[in-house]
């Protein structure tokens, strides 16, 4: 159990973490979600006593981190990928951690086996791939067989197999009754692993709910209609009291109606429909909506068109298949020869 | 995996109402299978010993130190012996290698802490041992003992080599008592006094290990390998350089700068000082360095315990 109480961190006049209060409960995977720069890593560093909070505090089972006598046996943490001295072998890295917390030597072999690094245990971690470095970090987190596990962006840069492995590992750890706290900036990733969700944006708490509740509350559903007679359909819909929204590719989105009702209405007026489909906005979109105002560094450019969430529908049909690829290749070749000669 | 919880039930803190317990199908209790005891400095020292012996930079810097100290001693002892010039104290040829060898120890002292900042390992270290002053103490103990033992062994070897070559010579025609107080003539032949032996072995070992400890403190303060090594090069070389360019009105300052500079301090420990009269043994310089090191280590403790990592 981790409890945060009014946790605040300021750098000069910039507030990185703003009055965060929440509890991470045992037995579930708690997702800690926020866009880049929202304060996730800062919060996690304060939880581990690495950064001093400007105000508020963090308790782990009622104690401050610095008061834990053998902290690796309470909390295992995977911080950003390489908090590891590259010149030391995987085995020796884990050994020096084990010795500092009176963890028996056989645990080193055990966790190396758990993360699948036994074969490279005697290799310097400098030569490790991102995925192997991540596994070594996780081995360090598991070393003390801790009650609480914290992972900061564990799937960053991993291949699909590695991502799958980490997902199952986290679920397994939570199933043993451990507290698992994992940060990410990818909603889709959280939807697959987390049962509980804490969302922050610009250091502020935006949501602290169960995943199911978050999905229920935040996902927008609507019906999409495509027709060769858009003007007539719009009149009919408006007359019937609906508010159709025209998207960039000429389809309508109707938020306040169900597909059957709208289909019957079109039939009554003998309108031809090419598409009539109930849609559900993705969780990614819900997350982006929630944190829209709080995103710190917007990409400098235009906002995406409103219809972009429906998968490939936003792409112009005629040129869609070939034009982008050609441009891509041409650009690459141009720049390649330009630089080479 | 349902061991009895070994953690005390968390007390609701802040006086606020207890958060509602999250309902889950899993029992919300998990205790580590490993028994928890209060940690001591001993664990931190063991951990730091593992760290220092398992990186190449330790092996490299100490090997370079050994090669420089012993190699240069062998090189300089040949011309000194050929000249049959007893103006150099018998054990002093060890100085020339050590002037370079000390830089290797300084580099290691800096790297012991800055390599952790450079790689991010410091976050892992301080997560494993949140008592930061204990981490620095353990590093200081392990590094100081290692560098002291290695330097003393190297210097004892050079002292023995020098002794075997240069002792027992009959001096010819020099006024030894006026200009060369470090040269000992016993029963008409060159020899070395007890304090010279002490200075040329444990004395210089202690001085160089203290310089390394100072480097560890500077590394902790600066958190940057190149910056800290440069700063320490300044500490070692600048006093002599500044002394050269001081105007003639500041002769006392110049003398102090030269006297307490690292090269002259080591030379004094060999009873072979660059300036000054009388038999200097380097003890004041050793004490001065110990004081400076203690002050900067204090600053390093203060910085490490209050700073964000």
TrEMBL record, chain A:
The keyword NADP does not apply. Gene3D superfamilies: P-loop containing nucleotide triphosphate hydrolases (3.40.50.300). Residues 299-341 are annotated as: Disordered. The keyword ATP-binding applies. Residues 314-332 have a biased composition (Low complexity). Residues 2-227 form the ABC transporter domain. This is ABC-2 type transport system ATP-binding protein. It comes from Actinacidiphila alni.
TrEMBL record, chain B:
The chain crosses the membrane at residues 59-78, 90-113, 141-166, 197-222, 229-250, 283-304. Keywords: Membrane, Transmembrane, Transmembrane helix. This is ABC-2 type transport system permease protein. It comes from Actinacidiphila alni.
